[in-house]
Design goal:
Layout (H helix, E strand, L loop, with lengths): L1 E7 L5 H12 L6 E7 L10 H9 L14 H6 L2 E4 L2 H10 L7 E3 L22 H25 L5
Helix pairs in contact: 1-5
């Protein structure tokens, strides 16, 4: 089972967006679990209204979503951790060094040169256009993540 975890700051904008989009990509695949968390999240918060509205337009429902703080147990369960920014990556590796081998930048495998290695912009506190830009970036990045996982996954014997 591949357990994919997306991480941002508050777990209300970028990581729930990535979680919902990636979950939709793998919905026909029983070998994937998808979740998200934040490095500085207030547990139990809903997804931001702009995130929820944009995803609803794509038929994805976040009404039951609740933010959560990244913790040791969540990282132990994850097989792949994708951070939205280099800052998030550094925070995860600093606090949980034993899991550094499975932490990647979400844009690390992007097919487009202008996206690869870049942080996903944080739309928090901005208008709908900023959220749409973040969504478009994630939609371009996530297929490459799926391909990376599928190409490199080794089943446990």
């Amino acid at each position: 089972m591949k357990n994919v975890l997306f991480v941002c700051t508050g777990n209300t904008c970028r990581s729930p967006m990535a979680e919902a989009l990636f979950r939709e990509m793998v919905k026909e695949r029983a070998d994937y679990q998808v979740s998200s968390a934040g490095v500085a999240a207030a547990p139990g918060m809903p997804a931001s209204k702009h995130t929820a509205a944009l995803l609803k337009e794509r038929g994805l429902d976040l009404t039951r979503f609740q933010s959560r703080m990244l913790d040791q147990q969540t990282l132990e369960q994850a097989t792949h951790v994708f951070a939205m920014s280099s800052h998030h990556m550094a925070a995860i590796v600093d606090e949980f060094p034993a899991h550094s081998d499975k932490v990647y930048l979400v844009s690390e495998f992007a097919a487009e040169d202008e996206l690869r290695g870049r942080d996903v912009s944080d739309p928090f506190g901005q208008g709908p256009a900023a959220y749409e830009e973040t969504l478009r970036s994630l939609e371009k990045m996530l297929p490459s993540l799926l391909a990376f996982i599928d190409q490199t996954w080794k089943k446990n014997d």
